[in-house]
Structure formats: structure tokens, C-alpha cells
């Protein structure tokens, strides 16, 4: 039986629709079975920053500041300008407000204080739907004391988590005479802590663990920097700050260098030992300078007298021999014995030794006293 033409056309259209629908279902099935691509970093999830995200565990964020005695609060109630007030938190931890009188806010955050004041206004039927805003006009309850050699010593409020570096910036930094060793006194009584911090380790060496968070009640003290003293044959005798890793050579440079009558090879150091006794030793140029050291740059000279033409004081040049010392003194007199010399020389302990009949090739040392003897016949 032969179907009409229009029926055959409808059948063809239906067959095409079924084919297309089958293809769509197959594509959808494949897509469901395929693994989903990972979300881009930062776009997948978002979560509020916590104390651990922004600093050390347990750090209080700025919005969680706890109100305390001495703080000044500015309080406003929406559409109630007559209730706006600026109030100081009393030592009892309370503030006095219109209508509701005394409200205890010490120890609360700003959000908690807003909720408490709003609840009291609502409970007293003063405002039906109160919207309260509390801002802290001045921080006085949480403070740190900064003393010693800083730009601006005094009391500083803590209105947010503050690190040592930030506090030092607030006080104008450390004075040139201030020490690199900072001291923090924390706590009271038997819980009192004495914390010493080397700012070079904290800031120059990158040891950020030394950049502590300061706490309310802390006392930061910056003592005077340790100094050394320098005297003798230098351009600028006096005292100077002991810098980190300073050597004797650098200390000499800080004093303007050795004078024309001195020498880098004639330097002594007076230093107290572990028992507090004063000891003196000859300094090496690469030796480290210690606090309270006394550097003495001696005259680089020797003395010659006796049977010489020009007795007196002369500079000790490197590798100067006794023969050359005689020449500087004009040589022996007619009665002098240039082969028989006596030398008075200080030993390491500072005692004078007498050296007889030294060879003329022997070296002359600083502070030597050369005596030219008289001929016996």
C-alpha cells in the first residue's frame, strides 16, 4: 500500500528530530561523566581573614579591640541626634549615657557595646528600633611606655596589633647614642619578664621572630649604646659608640686615624677581664673592640742618650736597627763606645728590663731607651 506524499514528509521530519534529540542526550551524558576542571586559585572559595592569616596565632584584630577605662567613646543613635554623646570610660568600666544612665562597657568590643546600648534603649522603651554606632575617639586603656634613647619617649596607645618595629617608628626611632640591645619589661610581680632583643638580628639579619607584638602594659627601654675610649696619638681622642663587629682598625678610623707621631703598631688596650681586673695588652688591628675598652695609641719613638752627638727622642721607623738609631743620634762621641749599647725596654707586663751589649743589627722597639756607654780606655 502506498502512503500519501504528505505523510511521508511528516515521517521524515519526525525521524530527523529523534536523531537530533539522541545526539543531544549523548553529548550531555559524556559531559556528566567528564571530570570537572579545578577552580582557579582565589576564585574557588573565599573566607574572612583570621588572626592566624595576618599574624601570630591568637593576635587580636583591630576590630576586636577591648574597651577599657580611660578610653573615650563617640556614641550616635540613628535619627536621634539628641542621644549623641562623647563619653569617657570611668575607672569602674562604665559610661554615663542619656536616658539609660550608667552602662558597663569595659572589656567589650565596639560591636558588643553597640548591641548592649541598643538593647537598653529598646528595653526602656526609649527607642523602638535603635541603631547605635560606637567609635573610639581616643585610646587610653591599652598603652605601652617607651623610655630611654628614642626620639619621643612617652606613653603610646595600642589601637591595633602593633609590632616592635611599628612602635619604634611611632616614637621617632632610636637616637644615635641608643643601643642596639632593646629591653622589654612585661608583666608584674612574679610573672614579670625581662626580654632582650637585638634589633640587628630582628631587622638587619631578617629574624622577624624578634619583631615582637607589644602588649598593653609593656615598658620598652632603649639604653645608651656601649662605648669605647681612645686616647694618645690620634686625631680625635675621646669616646665613640661600639658598632656591631667593630675592629681596632675601624675604631682608629672613627677617631680620625693615627696622628703623625703615632703608629698602628703601637696600640695598647686596657680591658677589664671576667673578674673585673684591669689588664693591658698589645692590640691587633683586626681585634674586636669591646664595651668600655680603652685604646691607647702610643708615641712611635725611642730615646737615645749617653755618649752620642745628638741625644734626644726620635721616631721609630719600621725595621729600625740600633746601628741606624746611632746614626740618627749623630753617632757616638769621641769617648763613646758604639759597640757597647745598653737598652732599657718594657716587657709585656709593663716592667722595665735592662738589655746589655745587644748587636747593632738588633731592632729598636717603641719606647726603647738606648744608652751609649763611655769607652773604658
Structure write-up:
It is a single chain. This protein has seven helices and 20 strands. By secondary structure, it is of the alpha+beta class. The protein has four domains: 62-138, wza like fold (2-Layer Sandwich); 143-222, Outer membrane lipoprotein wza domain like (Outer membrane lipoprotein wza fold like, Roll); 227-299, Outer membrane lipoprotein wza domain like (Outer membrane lipoprotein wza fold like); 301-374, Outer membrane lipoprotein wza domain like (Outer membrane lipoprotein wza fold like, Roll), CATH 3.10.560. The strands form five sheets. It has a five-stranded mixed sheet with strand order 7-6-10-8-9. Strand 3 and strand 4 (101-104) form a beta hairpin. The model is unreliable at 35-62 (pLDDT under 50).
Amino acid at each position: 500500500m502506498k502512503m500519501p506524499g504528505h505523510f511521508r514528509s511528516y515521517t521524515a521530519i519526525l525521524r530527523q528530530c529523534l536523531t537530533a534529540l539522541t545526539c543531544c542526550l549523548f553529548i550531555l551524558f559524556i559531559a556528566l561523566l567528564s571530570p570537572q576542571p579545578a577552580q582557579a586559585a582565589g576564585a574557588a572559595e573565599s573566607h574572612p581573614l583570621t588572626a592566624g592569616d595576618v599574624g601570630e596565632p591568637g593576635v587580636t584584630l583591630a576590630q576586636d579591640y577591648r574597651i577599657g577605662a580611660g578610653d573615650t567613646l563617640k556614641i550616635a543613635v540613628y535619627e536621634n541626634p539628641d542621644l549623641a554623646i562623647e563619653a569617657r570610660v570611668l575607672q569602674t568600666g562604665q559610661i554615663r549615657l542619656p536616658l539609660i544612665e550608667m552602662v558597663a562597657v569595659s572589656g567589650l568590643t565596639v560591636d558588643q557595646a553597640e548591641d548592649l546600648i541598643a538593647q537598653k534603649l529598646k528595653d526602656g522603651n526609649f527607642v523602638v528600633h535603635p541603631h547605635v554606632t560606637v567609635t573610639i575617639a581616643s585610646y587610653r586603656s591599652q598603652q605601652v611606655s617607651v623610655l630611654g634613647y628614642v626620639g619621643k619617649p612617652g606613653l603610646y596607645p595600642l589601637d591595633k596589633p602593633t609590632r616592635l618595629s611599628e612602635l619604634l617608628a611611632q616614637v621617632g626611632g632610636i637616637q644615635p647614642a641608643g643601643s642596639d640591645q632593646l629591653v622589654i619589661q612585661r608583666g608584674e610581680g612574679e610573672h614579670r619578664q625581662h626580654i632582650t632583643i637585638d634589633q640587628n638580628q630582628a631587622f638587619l639579619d631578617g629574624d622577624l621572630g624578634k619583631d615582637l607584638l607589644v602588649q598593653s602594659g609593656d615598658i620598652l627601654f632603649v639604653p645608651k649604646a656601649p662605648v669605647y675610649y681612645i686616647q694618645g696619638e690620634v686625631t680625635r681622642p675621646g669616646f665613640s659608640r661600639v658598632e656591631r663587629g667593630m675592629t681596632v682598625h675601624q675604631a682608629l678610623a672613627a677617631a680620625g686615624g693615627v696622628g703623625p707621631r703615632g703608629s698602628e703598631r703601637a696600640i695598647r688596650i686596657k680591658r677589664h677581664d671576667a673578674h673585673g681586673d684591669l689588664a693591658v695588652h698589645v692590640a691587633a688591628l683586626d681585634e674586636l673592640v669591646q664595651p668600655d675598652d680603652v685604646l691607647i695609641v702610643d708615641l712611635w719613638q725611642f730615646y737615645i742618650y749617653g755618649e752620642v752627638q745628638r741625644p734626644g727622642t726620635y721616631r721609630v721607623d719600621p725595621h729600625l736597627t740600633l746601628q741606624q738609631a746611632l746614626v740618627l743620634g749623630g753617632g757616638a762621641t769621641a769617648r763613646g763606645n758604639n759597640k757597647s749599647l745598653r737598652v732599657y725596654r718594657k716587657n709585656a707586663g709593663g716592667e722595665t728590663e735592662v738589655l746589655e751589649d745587644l748587636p747593632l743589627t738588633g731592632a729598636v722597639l717603641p719606647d726603647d731607651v738606648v744608652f751609649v756607654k763611655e769607652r773604658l780606655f
